[in-house]
Design goal:
Length: 124
């Protein structure tokens, strides 16, 4: 089960990267880790640095993929984004945000739905 979930997540991240690149985003890094957690994708959207949380689900029986970001996960994402900027001095003056890319697969494994929520997680 864990292996299957890891494959689902990795496939979703590959799809998300291609989906974002097709919309003009530039790839920076994938699966960046720090003590606060992991950033699935680091991308550039023009002058902005974008940390992307990718959620992939088979169907919506357990809810939509974008509903899976809990307040605890949101805090980890914010801390991870700040850690990335701290670890990369060239990013110190760059505006950054956290987006969510939610992918829903149908019964055959084909992508049925993609929801891109810009600024999905923010300090507030």
């Amino acid at each position: 089960m864990t292996h299957d979930r890891a494959n689902l997540g990795a496939g979703g991240e590959r799809y998300a990267r291609r989906w974002l690149e097709a919309r003009g985003y530039g790839f920076v890094a994938a699966n960046w880790r720090c003590p606060a957690g992991e950033i699935d994708l680091v991308m550039r959207d023009g002058a902005e640095l974008v940390f992307v949380e990718v959620k992939t689900r088979r169907g919506e029986r357990a809810g939509r993929a974008e509903e899976a970001v809990t307040p605890t996960k949101a805090r980890r994402l914010l801390a991870s984004g700040a850690a990335y900027v701290d670890a990369h001095p060239a990013c110190a003056d760059i505006i950054w945000r956290i987006d969510l890319l939610a992918i829903t697969l149908g019964p055959t494994g084909a992508v049925e739905r993609v929801a891109h929520l810009e600024n999905a997680v923010f300090a507030g």
